[in-house]
């Protein structure tokens, strides 16, 4: 996606980080790419200004960059994981935030990434923040992340199917997930027939 001229340098920084991440993990950057595509479609449907779409896109492209610090065996482990392993997986959000926060972006990219597993009702992580404390872009990213994750094949399991993914976001609509974003996502997936590209 071409970014506007003032953001070109930031997109280049993001591209460099992704290239580095791809050296050790062939899966996560593809998941991030697909999530970014869906997030941008939701943002456009909700008429987010072009500047904020750029930031949403870049944030989504690196939202799981903190997974570069998690052992690949754990990221790709099939079947059930232990509570301890889940605790380790969750640290990717804080790692990612700290990495991205080193860069003086003139916008809230690191904050959006920090919030991508937070929920409106405060039941998410790492900080358990809620409601208005969650940037709108992160609410979009959260919904796109869930739909991409469930509808795509992952290294540790096959796709659960788009119908199951859409049922899941409808189940969480208004409690954990922003209802406006859920409705926009349903529209985009159904009207534009969005599907993740098989990796
Ligand atoms: Fe994540
Ligand atoms: Fe993700």
Q: Could you walk me through the main structural features you see in this protein, from its secondary elements to its overall organization?
A:
This protein is mostly helical. The protein has one domain (5-191): Hypothetical protein af1432. It is built from 9 helices and no strands. The longest helix has 18 residues, at 28-45. The radius of gyration is 16 Å and the shape is globular. The chain starts with 7 loop residues before the first helix and ends in an 8-residue tail after the last helix. The structure holds fe (ii) ion (FE2) (2 copies). The site of one fe (ii) ion (FE2) has 5 residues, from loops.
Count of structural domains: 1
For this structure, the CATH topology is Hypothetical protein af1432
Ends apart, CA distance between termini: 19 Å
Oligomeric state, counting identical vs distinct chains: single chain
For this structure, what is the CATH homologous superfamily? Hypothetical protein af1432
Please summarize the sheet with the most strands: none
- Ions and ligands: fe (ii) ion
Structural class: mainly alpha
What's the count of strands? 0
Output the helix-strand order. Answer: HHHHHHHHH
Helix content: 55-70%
What is the overall shape?
Answer: globular
CATH class, please? Answer: Mainly Alpha
State Rg.
Answer: 16 Å
Residue fraction in strands: under 5%
- Uncertain runs: none
């Amino acid at each position: 996606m071409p970014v506007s001229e003032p953001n070109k340098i930031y997109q280049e920084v993001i591209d460099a980080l992704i290239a580095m991440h791809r050296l050790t993990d062939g899966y996560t950057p593809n998941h991030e790419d697909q999530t970014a595509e869906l997030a941008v479609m939701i943002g456009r449907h909700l008429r987010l200004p072009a500047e904020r779409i750029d930031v949403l896109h870049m944030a989504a492209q690196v939202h799981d960059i903190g997974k570069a610090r998690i052992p690949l065996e754990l990221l790709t482990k099939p079947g059930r994981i232990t509570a301890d392993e889940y605790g380790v997986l969750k640290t990717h959000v804080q790692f990612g935030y700290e990495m991205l926060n080193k860069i003086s972006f003139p916008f809230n990219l690191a904050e959006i990434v920090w919030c991508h597993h937070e929920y409106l009702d405060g039941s998410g992580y790492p900080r358990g923040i809620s409601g208005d404390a969650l940037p709108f872009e992160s609410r979009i990213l959260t919904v796109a992340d869930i739909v991409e994750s469930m509808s795509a094949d992952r290294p540790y399991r096959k796709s659960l199917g788009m119908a199951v993914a859409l049922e899941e976001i409808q189940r969480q609509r208004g409690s954990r997930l922003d209802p406006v974003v859920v409705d926009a996502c349903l529209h985009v997936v159904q009207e534009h027939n969005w599907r993740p590209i098989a990796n």
